[in-house]
Amino acid sequence: MARYARQHGWQIEADLNNDIIGNIHGIDGVVDNTHARIFSEGTKSTETRRQAAYRRYFGGEVDSPSRNVSRYMAGLAEQYLTNLHVDMIYRTDRFGRGDDQVAFLAAGYPAVRLTETHENYHRQHQDVRVENGIHYGDVLSGVNFPYLAQVTRLNLVTMAAMASAPAPPGELKVKGAVQPDTTLTWKASPGAVGYRVWWRDTTAPPWQHARWVGNVSKATLKDMVIDHDFFGVSAVSGDGYASPVEFPGFAGSFQNPPPAK
Q1: Which residue among 60, 64, 83, 201 sits deepest, i.e. has the most Cβ atoms within 10 Å of its Cβ?
Q2: According to the model, what pLDDT value does residue 139 have?
Q3: Which DSSP category does 195 fall into?
Q4: What is the set of domains in the chain, with CATH numbers?
Q5: Is the dihedral of CA 86, 3, 65, 99 positive or negative?
Q6: In a 10 Å sphere around its CB, with 0-12 CB exposed, 13-18 middle and 19+ buried, how is residue 14 labelled?
Q7: Per-residue DSSP letters for 224-252?
Q8: Is the pLDDT of residue 109 over 80?
Q9: Is residue 114 classed as helix, strand or coil in its secondary structure?
């Protein structure tokens, strides 16, 4: 499907891959129906050596579009859902394992993986059987449907928010070297009535602060030194729906790759 999308020039804001999202009884003995994990890559699979060198020097290791989709979903969960919290995992997937979102990442599209927080490995990749008193296999009795519904709600509210919001701004750039102010410029998003500039400490997982700057394509943050924070911009619709935050440069760009030849 990722290959088909490239060939036909699809514009994809995010691939939300759900796998192993219905169990609450972990193999570690923990029962948890209040958390879901979102895995996201830190740096783009498609970056060139030159892009990687720029990113290593100026930052962006934790600000791929996929990572900012996970931040977006974590915020939506807190805003709209009851008793479901997102654990952002700073990995492409579970340790030593992988899933279908990886093909989209390799094709240059933002993608995340949602999965339960406490997995039960007896129910994965096993023939259905009972052995030494242990029940193996992925069977219906292992699914907790209220929890599955919660994770489904997280997907639905994410898709609804993205569909209601403009696309993230394009060609976002940031400047401020040897200056007292930080300036961001971007290309307008169709349907946006304004933009919100975001910033956070370089060691902070979520975006911490925001400022509405209106329907412009350039914003200067007075007396805010670029060296202290990471910066981003989201596009906002007329009824208040915002896109995921975009980080400046290739490292954070939501711009899709050109169609594959």
Answers
A1: 64
A2: 95
A3: E
A4: 2-164 (3.40.630.10), 170-252 (2.60.40.10)
A5: positive
A6: buried
A7: --GGGEEEEEEEE-TTS-BPPPBPSSGGG
A8: yes
A9: strand
CA nearest 245: which of 183, 176, 166, 175?
166
For residue 1 the two structure tokens come to 């499907």
Q: Both tokens of residue 10? A: 């699809």
Q: 233 - beta bridge partners?
A: 197, 246
CB 94, CB 39: distance < 8 Å: yes
User: Which whole-number Å values give the CA distances from 104 to 1, 15, 34, 208, in the listed order?
Assistant: 8, 7, 28, 29
Q: Average of pLDDT values for 114-129?
A: 95
Q: CA-to-CA distance for 68 and 65, rounded, in angstroms?
A: 5
pLDDT for the residue numbered 261: 76
The structure tokens 């975006």 sit at: 207
